[in-house]
Amino acid sequence: MIDLLRADLKRAFKDKLVIVLCVIGGIFAVSGPLLYKAIFWLLGSDQSLMQELEMLGLSINAKTLFFNAFAPNDNFGLILPIFVAIIMCRDFNHGTIRNKIICGKSRVSIYFSMLITCAVLICTFIFAHAILTLLASLIFFDFQSTKFTASDLGYTFASIGMELLVYLLISAVLVLFIVLIRRTGLAIVLYFVFVFSLTIVGAITSVVSMFIEADAGAKVVYAVIEFLDIANAFNGGIGVGTTYKLKEVLFFVLPNVALIAGVILLALFSFKKKDLK
To answer: Which one of 22, 35, 192, 195 is at 20 to 30 Å from 41 when CA atoms are compared?
Structure first.
């Protein structure tokens, strides 16, 4: 398993598309902060405009741009899985998977090697992109409008952990479609259907939760909508506040861990039954 994983990681990171990903990620990381700075400069008053935005709950600072860089349904987060899917599907297209089985590697080992390779690729690139975005943002903006405290540090690390959980889910779903379809284009299409479906659901639950009052008559409905709103990994609520309630952490982490486990079991079952001839 270790030798197999090492070989898969080496082959994946040596792919020429990795260079393309580095260029695209770098462009997105630098262009975002530059664009916001240019908008503030054109409007004439950085400080007053930022204060007005903060009053509306739309503050622009390095912290906001850093966590926006993780968004899986926008910018680099939307492009990254496309390139990773192309890299991962090459093992099927070139007969590498079949050769591994002929060489005596178990399908379980092959699947988990694929999953870990995909997760390492995706998490490495999205985290590097977010860090570069943060460094570029700090040139033009403060990290946040208030003084940075130990509480903020804990919140930041918790948010990063939750973002990485999102990309573990993305990796598991992407490998599931690759295993089921084995065709790059169709696997990417199915992935986008999955992402945009959850994004639409998230938009609906966010709006509905604003209009449902948690009174006695709507208590159950409100609780269900609130749960769906928080649990949705593509809802974009990570890193936008200053602290998390225990309920928010549990509502987010537990369903997504369960979903990842379910996706892995489904993909593993499908891969073990798949005819690779």
So the answer is: 22
Q: What residue ranges do the domains of the chain occupy?
A: 2-273
C-beta separation of 195 from 72 below 8 A: yes
**Under 8 Å between Cβ of 87 and 9:** no
What DSSP state is assigned to residue 188?
Answer: H
- Distance between start and end Cα atoms, the chain: 23
Q: What is the DSSP string of 64-100?
A: HHHHHTT-TTSHHHHHHHHHHHHHHHHHHHTTHHHHH
- Cα(184)–Cα(181) distance, integer angstroms: 8
- d(CA 22, CA 128) in angstroms, rounded, equals 9
Determine the Cα–Cα distance for residues 30 and 262; give it in Å rounded to an integer: 37
Round to whole Å and give the CA distance between 101 and 148.
Answer: 53
- The alpha-carbon radius of gyration of the chain (Å, integer) is 21
Tens of pLDDT, residues 36-63: 777 777 765 555 555 555 544 556 788 8
Compute the distance between CA of residue 164 and CA of residue 87 in angstroms, rounded to an integer: 21
pLDDT tens-digit series, residues 68-116: 888 888 788 889 999 998 888 877 666 666 667 666 677 788 888 889 9
Measuring CA to CA, which residue among 104, 121, 101, 86 is closest to residue 9? 121
